[in-house]
Each structure stands twice: as structure tokens, then as C-alpha cells.
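User: C-alpha cells for this complex, please. No commentary.
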Amino acid sequence: MQIAPPDSDRLFAALADHTRRDIVRRAISAEEGDIVRRAISAEEGVLELASHYPMSFAAVQKHVAVLERAGLITKQRIGRRRVVRTNLEALLVARRLLDQYEELWRARIDRMNELVAETAGAIDTVETKESKR
Amino acid sequence: MTVTAVRKDPQRLTLTVEAEFDASVERIWQLWADPRQLERWWGPPTYPATFTKHDLAPGSRVESHMTGPAGDQPHGYWDVLEVEPPRRILFRAGFAKSDGTPNTDMPINTIRVGIEGVAQGRTRMSIEIVGIEGVAQGRTRMSIEIVFPSTEAMEQVLAMGTEEGLSQAVGQIDAILAEETIQR
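Assistant:
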């Protein structure tokens, strides 16, 4: 069976790097929309972010890309500018919700399985009785 | 193990669960098509379900309620969209008020059920639940926006990052989980 890598793998892998966790942490501590208001010129967004880390601009961009792929950041177009938006809390809420649904359906499937096993037994009994006649 | 695959997509709010049973396609179909069978698995033992209206036909509305230990009766409904016995059902499931009318304050899920034989006497059922929503209570949105110098730069970044870093850190998952627990 072909199964896509579970999203949690990507999420955890994205958060497994110190720099990326720090980028996300900055996201959490920022006031909503604050960066947008302060982003006077397009360059400042990423350059500002890059200045916090002892690495190249390109390296920071790579980390941002990993976060994007993990679903911690989404692409958005605002006017003529391309921006990325982080929404960790919403994502965690979504994940908890999906976990609850998984639990619900696993329990349902367990009950289905019991029901199927029960009736399979009943049919076997009937068949055995009939074959004895 | 009955459940053979689980896929979650937090961005699309979609859950897919696949399970395999030692039973025929018709037998698994009956779990959905016979309301008396459905009642035996839809609700947990503490909240058994009763289906008061059940006709699996496109355009029909299935009505049910569950009965809780304190006598509370949450009502639910399905709006059946597509049916192809014994292989496919597509319906929208929601909560209803006590008179059976849909409660529009509660989330609606679209559920797609597929049933197929995989071997002699073995049947796979897949359930895809789309548009999972929670009640928005107590939800906090925190966001940041990072502005890229240009479309080209952004596309370049996205192209670069796809392979990098995804596999290297798998061994650190336990540490991350521990760290997250401490932070909360």
C-alpha cells in the first residue's frame, strides 16, 4: 500500500532543528500583524529574520522552506507582495482534533470487527449443523 | 490489526482511515446499510445509537440519536449524497436539535466510505472525513508574516527546502516531544 509520509513526521522533523524552532518561537511571541505593519520594505522581513542567526541569508531561507513544507507556514499573496504566514496554534488545534477523530473511528472499527466476527461465527455454526444433516 | 492506514492532513482538516476485515464486501456493506447493525457500532457502549430514519438513497436524510448515561440524547443526521451498493457512500453528517432539524452551530463533516475486496474473504474499507471542524471556543490565533524580497526569491526558497532537513532529524522526535511537554 502506498502511504504518504504522515504529516506528523514532517511536523516533528521541522521542529527538530533549533533554528527552525526559534523561527517558530518568534512567530508565537510576535503580536498578530505586527511584522506586517513593521515590514516597510519587502526586504526587511527576511533580512531581519536572518540577522538573528549566525548563518547565511540562504540558510535561513532554507529553514523557512522546511517550515512551509511542514505546514507551519503558509504562502499568501498580499497585494503585489508574497508573504508567508505562520499559524502554529491553529495547526496544533487541528492536529488534536484529527487525533480525536482518529480515536473515534478506531473505536468504531473495533466494534465493526467484533460484529463481523460474531456473525461469521454464527454462520459457521449454521453451516456445520447443515453439513451434519 | 484491523486498521491498516491512517492519514491526517491538518491543513485540509481531513482524516482517512483504512481497515481490513475478514469478511465479504456484502457483509461490510451491511454494517452501513442495515440500521440495526449500524446501531451496534456507531455509538460507544455508553452512548448507544438509535437510527429512527434510515434509507441509503441519494437525497435522503438519515436520522439518529444517541442515549447517554444521564438520559441525554444528542441527535444527529446524515444527508446522503451518493450511494453505490455495496461499494460506496458519500454523506454529510451533522448534529441536530432535539426536533431533528440540523444544528447549524455545530460542525458538519463530509464522509466518504469505500468498500472493496482485496482477496478472497478479505475486504478493505476506507473512510475519508473531510472538513473536520472544532468549536472555535478558546482558540487563540498567533501569527507572523515574513515578507520575501520577491516572488522569485520565494519560489527559489521553496524549491530549495523541499528535500533538506526532513529526514535528518527523525531521531530527535522524542527530545522534541519532551521539550514541548515542558513548555506547556
